[in-house]
Design brief:
single chain; two-stranded antiparallel sheet; 16% helix; alpha+beta
């Protein structure tokens, strides 16, 4: 695999031997006033969010951090930032330098899958 992403997403270069293990359509809370549509990937090496092209060209940011820094996946209860995805319960990924919030479908199933992945890496 040379890259992660697709024709409708911003892409990122895949590392040597990097494989996608989980992926979910998601909206990432980029700021309290902006949620960016795209896709969340969990590979054997990294957690990556790639925005849709439209959001990317209008300021949506890629996000990535090493999988080894992923500490937990849990529910962030709805509330707070109305335009940042706060009208729904969100996926909260906690890592060594902070946290990331995502609106995903089937939230509990996504959390279960990611927690299983975290348990396997330890």
């Amino acid at each position: 695999m040379n890259k992660i992403g697709s024709w409708w997403l911003a892409s990122i270069k895949a590392a040597k031997n990097e494989e996608i293990e989980l992926s979910y359509p998601a909206n990432r809370t980029q700021t309290s006033n902006r949620a960016v549509g795209g896709k969340l990937y969990i590979t054997n090496m990294r957690c990556i969010f790639l925005p849709h092209w439209f959001d990317f060209v209008s300021g949506g940011k890629r996000m990535e951090f090493p999988l080894s820094e992923l500490e937990s996946a849990s529910v962030e209860p709805k509330g707070g930032e109305r335009f940042g995805g706060g009208l729904r319960d969100r996926l909260k990924l906690t890592h060594k330098i902070g946290l990331e919030l995502f609106v995903v479908d089937k939230l509990e199933k996504v959390i279960e899958s990611i927690c299983s992945k975290i348990a396997k890496k330890t």
